[in-house]
Every structure is written in C-alpha cells, then in structure tokens.
Amino acid sequence: MKVLISLSSFGAAETGRHGQLWCTDLAQQAGADGVEVRGELLRDAATELPALAGRAAVYSSPEGLWTPRGELDEAALARGVQAAQVLRAPRLKMSIGGFSPSSHASLHRLKALLQAAPQVELVIENDQTATAGTLAAIQAFFAAQAQAGLDLGMTFDMGNWHWQGECPLQAAQALAPYVRYVHCKGVQRLPAKWVAVPLADSVAPWRAVLRALPADVPHAIEYPLVGDDLVTVTREQVAFIRAAREAA
Prior knowledge:
The chain is of the alpha/beta class.
C-alpha cells in the first residue's frame, strides 16, 4: 500500500512560499511513496508542471466535471488531462461538479474523451458540496456511469462527508467497490465549521472507515502537516498512516 502526500497538506502559505517542487522533495525525504499535485496551488503552471514531471502520482484539478447547469465541462476536463500528461501522472482527480439527471446523456461523450487519453485514469472525489459531496449524489453518478459503459473509480475522502452532514462509515460501506484511492483526513468541529485534522485527533470513526475501504489502493495524507521540522512531522504521519492501515 502506497502512502502519498497531497501537497495541500503543507498549507497554501507554505506551498506558495516554496512551491510544489520543494514540497515534493520534502515528501520524498520523509519517506512518502509519491505526491498529489494540486492545481489550485500552482503559481506558474507552465514552469511548475514540467519541473514536476515524473514526480506525481496524482494531479488534482480544482474544477468540476459538470457545470452548475449540468453540462459536461469539456474544457475543464481537457485542462486536467493536459496537466496530468505534462506531469506524467497516471491519475487525474476531479469532482462531478453539477452532475444531475440531465447530465446522463453526456456520459457517452465523457467516455469518448477519456478513450482519447488512455494514459490518464480519471478518479472521482466526493467534495464538500451538496451536488458532489453526498452519498446520494455519488451513488447516482456511479450508477449512471456504469450504465453508460464507463468504469470510473473513486477517490474516497474520509473527511469531506461531514461538510454535508453525511456519515463517512455508511458512505465507505456503500462505495467501497468503486474506491481506487483514499484521502486520509480527520475532522473536528469548531463552533461555525468543520476543520481537517490528523486522523489521530479526529472525532470521526476513522478506524472503522479504513476497515470498510480497500487496503491495496494508495492512501494520501490530506490534513495539515505543520511544525518547525516538517520532514520529521511528515515522516511520523506517513508512518502513522501505514501502521493504521495495517492495523485496520
């Protein structure tokens, strides 16, 4: 089982100050098996993406696959695929955005577009929105894509379910057959919002969620990694995820 680092874990300020290449080097020093490059944190994609080529396991696009009106966003998909290709990343992660019943007809077009870029595997993540972050929305999407002859996998974010009041364990039990990548994220509740925290500090039943998910897929840290010695902090968290997964 590979442990990756989502580079958003180092925070927007730290990543903005040093760049994602610096963060990738740090993750490697800490013993991570790879990284997830974040599109929303790129300062200059034209130079950063080529510099990171061959170093990333996943490219995370901040764009949804469907617009708020339910139309397939071919331009967003093309941008994501192109970035993944420049990175030589085998996986592209996106949310379904505004996918709705009216979007079903466009799944055949999505299939054709993905067949034109076979070196990039698209995986769908549950985000923190009502249209793309509830169990009902994700289940409806995976049922529809299967009917259209697609075989997409899922990035299961353990923490994002809470933003929509969903049960992560129920989601894990229902969606496990689709899961090809796991975002490890603990959560705590502040008075006005949920926040991401290390799994060990989470109020969620993360051990049970891990047990419900496939063990042989990559698991990425996607919670804040902070401290004066970031290499040591990151190394400890990589070891924690490996041990937690083995214990599950």
